[in-house]
Write a structure and sequence with these properties.
The protein is mainly β. The strands form two sheets. A four-stranded parallel β-sheet has the order 1-3-5-7, with no helix packed on it. Strands 2-4-6 form a three-stranded parallel β-sheet, with no helix packed on it.
Length: 90
Amino acid sequence: MTALTDVDFSSNAFSGTILPSWGNTKLLVKSISIANNYISGTLPATLANLVRLVKLNLSNNSLTGTIPLEFAQLRGLTHMYAPPPPPPIR
C-alpha cells in the first residue's frame, strides 16, 4: 500500500489522539484530513517523518499544545489547517 497518497477521515465522529505511529508509516502520503472529528491531545512530532506531506487538515477538533518544531522539516507542506489557539486568560 505504498501508493496511498490521500487520507481523508473527515467528519466521522472519530475520537482519541493521533498516534505517533502514523508518522512511521511507509506510505507516501501527500494529504491527510481528520477535520470535523473529536480528536484531542497534541500533534506527535513523528508526523514530520511524512516528508511528502503537502496538506494537513486538523480543523474542528480539540487539539492542544503547539506545532512540533520538527514540522519545519516538512518543506513541501504548503497547506495546514489547525484549530485556532484558545483565547488568552484574563
